[in-house]
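Example record for the data management plan.
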Amino acid sequence: MNGIAQIAVCAGLCVVMAVGAAAQRHSDPFTPAEIDQIRDASWEPQQRLTLYVKFARARLVSLEQMRSDPKIKDRAQQTHERLSDFSAIYDELNDNIDTYVDRKNDIRKPLKLIIDADAEFQAKLLALKDAAGVSPEEARQYEFTLTGALDTVNASVEDHRKLLEEQQEAAKHKKLAKAAGGKPE
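Corresponding structural encoding:
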């Protein structure tokens, strides 16, 4: 094989590999505007956590709207993609909660909002799971993603409630210590 042929083969392989890699990558669940909002709120726990709830909710609303649109042809695939985006955002929410807890931030206010949203998210995901008129073939295409999203939200509900209780208890101890003239813990 001459040098030009080798270069052509190498270039062809590079193109095939790049296309394959791009096809395997999942798109970012956030829009550029959402990324900017999250970045701007990086040091404000209440604002940042509220944004994650807002974005997760928007993905479920988008999912509901898409599923009720009779013009949609690839409903199962789009359901899978929107559930994946919801799960990615919800996971980011939980990661940020962990970060703020590690920093010892007071996140009681956003936790109350998150706990309310958890109940809403559970209801919407369960409604999707129990949706009438969905063929078994369609449901199989997103069942794993839906089950994963439900499992994550279900596990997080208890974690979020427990964390709120811990934060309320810690705030009460700080207040008592301060009132007693001592240094808060």
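Summary line stored alongside the record: DSSP finds six helices and no strands in the chain.
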